[in-house]
Amino acid sequence: MGWINNLRVAYKMLILAVIAVIGMSFIGYSGYSAITKAKTDMDTMYSTSVRSLDYVGQIRFGIRYAQGMAVITTTVRNDPQRVQTLQQKYQDGIKIVEENLQQYEAIPGRTEEMKAELMETKARWQRLKANLDEVMKDCMAGQPEAGLVSYNATGSKEANDIRAHVDGLASMETAEAEQLNTQNNAETGAAIRNMVIQLLVTLIILIAASLWITKEITNPLQKMMMALERLKGGDFSNHARTINRGDEFGEMADKVAEVRMSLNKLMHNTSTTAEQLAA
C-alpha cells in the first residue's frame, strides 16, 4: 500500500480519527436503534397486555360490585331511600362493566382464542345483567323476596359462569404479557451482545490501523536515524536511497542526501587542496 507513504503525517492521524468516528457512530446508531426498539416493545406491551389486564380487572370488579349491590338490595325491607341508593350504586357497577368491555374490545391484536373468550364473556354478561336487572326491578317494586328467589334460581350460577370466563381472559392476557416480556428481554440481550461485538470489532480495526500507521511512521524514522548515525561517524559516501516517500520523511531524506552530497563535495575539495599544497 504505497499510497500511504505519500500521505502527510497529519493525514495519517486523520485516518485513525475517521476510523474511530465511523466505528463509534455505527455503535451509537446500533445502540439508538436498540433503545428505540425496546421503547416500541414497551409501548406495545403497555397498549395491549397491561391495559388489557387493567380493563379485565375493572370488568371483574364491576361485576362483583353490581352483583353485591343487587344481593344487598334483596335484604332491604321498608326503606325506599336505601333501595334507591343501592339502585344507583348498582347502575355504577353496570357502567364500569360496560365501559371496560367496550375499551377492552377496542384493543387490536387479539388472538382467535381471545376473541372467542371475549364473545362468550359478553354473552354471559348479558344473561347475568338481565337477571340482576330483574332482581333490582323486584326490589324497587317492594318485592325483595321475589328478587332473591330470582337471583338464587339463575343469577348466582350466571355470576359463577362469567367469573370463570373473565378469569380465563385474565390468564390469557397474563400469558401474552409474559410472552411479550420474554421476547423483549431476548431482543434486548441480543442488542447488547451485538453492541459488544461491534465495539470489539471496532477496537480491533482501530488497533490494527494504529499499529499499521505507527509502523509507517517509525520505520522511516529509524532509517533516518541510521543515515544520520553514518554522517555522525564520518561516512559521507553516497548510499542507495532506502526512503522514497512523498511525506515529511521523504523530504527529510532528500535534505539528508543533500547534506551528504555537500559534505562529500567539501571533503573531496579539501582533500584535493591538501594534495596540491603538499606537492
Mind explaining what this structure looks like?
- The chain has helices spanning 9-73, 80-106, 112-140, 144-232, 248-278.
- It is mainly alpha-helical.
- It folds into two domains: 9-205, Up-down Bundle (Four Helix Bundle (Hemerythrin (Met), subunit A)), CATH 1.20.120.1730; 218-278, Orthogonal Bundle (Helicase, Ruva Protein, domain 3), CATH 1.10.8.
- Helix 1 packs parallel to helix 3 and helix 2 (80-106) runs antiparallel to helix 3.
- The longest helix has 89 residues, at 144-232.
- The protein is rod-shaped.
- The protein starts with 8 loop residues before the first helix and ends with a helix.
Name the features.
Helicase, Ruva Protein, domain 3, 279 residues, 2 domains, rod-shaped, mainly alpha
- First-residue to last-residue Cα separation: 56 Å
Q: What's the β-strand tally?
A: 0
Q: What is the second-level CATH architecture of the largest domain?
A: Up-down Bundle
Helix content: over 70%
Number of helices, where a helix is a run of at least 4 consecutive DSSP H or I residues: 5
CATH topology of the largest domain: Four Helix Bundle (Hemerythrin (Met), subunit A)
The whole-number mean of residue pLDDT values reads: 83
Rough shape? rod-shaped
What is the CA-atom radius of gyration, in angstroms? 45 Å
Low-pLDDT parts are none
Estimate what percentage of residues fall within beta strands. under 5%
- What is the highest CATH level, the class of the largest domain? Mainly Alpha
Largest sheet: none
Strand/helix succession? HHHHH
**Class from secondary-structure proportions:** mainly alpha
Total individual domains: 2
Question: Based on the structure, what is the oligomeric state of the protein chains?
Answer: single chain
